[in-house]
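Title: Request for sanity check on Large ribosomal subunit protein uL4 prediction

Description:
We are preparing a figure and want to confirm that the structure record we downloaded matches what your pipeline produces today. Could someone re-run it with the sequence below and paste the raw structure tokens into this thread? We only need the token string, no images.
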Amino acid sequence: MELSVYSIQGKETGKKVTLSDDVFAIEPNEHVMWLDVKQYLANQRQGTHKSKERWEVARSTRKLIRQKGTGGARHGSYKANIFKGGARVFGPKPRDYSFKLNKKVKSLARKSALASKAKDGVVTVVENFSFDAPKTKQYISVLAAFAAADTKTLLVLPAADNNVFLSARNLPKANVLPADQLTTYALLNADRLIIAEGAVEKIEALLN
């Protein structure tokens, strides 16, 4: 697949970049993409939720009513879950939600996500650029040049660039990632994928 390279002003530079068919033209595998997104979201969970069990609730343990002869159920403590302020049965406990995925599965998931975006025609390649200082207005002008100012976008850079990252940080629909931190979740969460020219080679090297 061959795409034109654009300047950050949205104009064609006359250069072309060839995207590897092994990455951008495979048949997307929806199941592995689902697995990778599921793992990503599971890893974000803190797992610190906790409710009190009977032994942790601070309430009286006196016998409420006599054992027999009342015509009702037997009760031995206000800590029981049926009483207001009592314990919770089978409540949540702190746990680790993360799980393992094989490297080849994760690699295939990212390839599938990239191929899916290429198939939808929402991939744009721009020449490498940087900012002298963090300027949100300057980053908005870059997005506006590609008619993506109000669209969920993902910009992939060859390496981490703090000025570009800080310029996009305040924009709720903009995301910036270096090529080596690209995730399936970030790819699928974006409606437009903008890749810096130097990042194309790095992505292909990482996934192949």
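Thanks, this matches our download. The chain has two domains: 2-46+97-207, 51-91.
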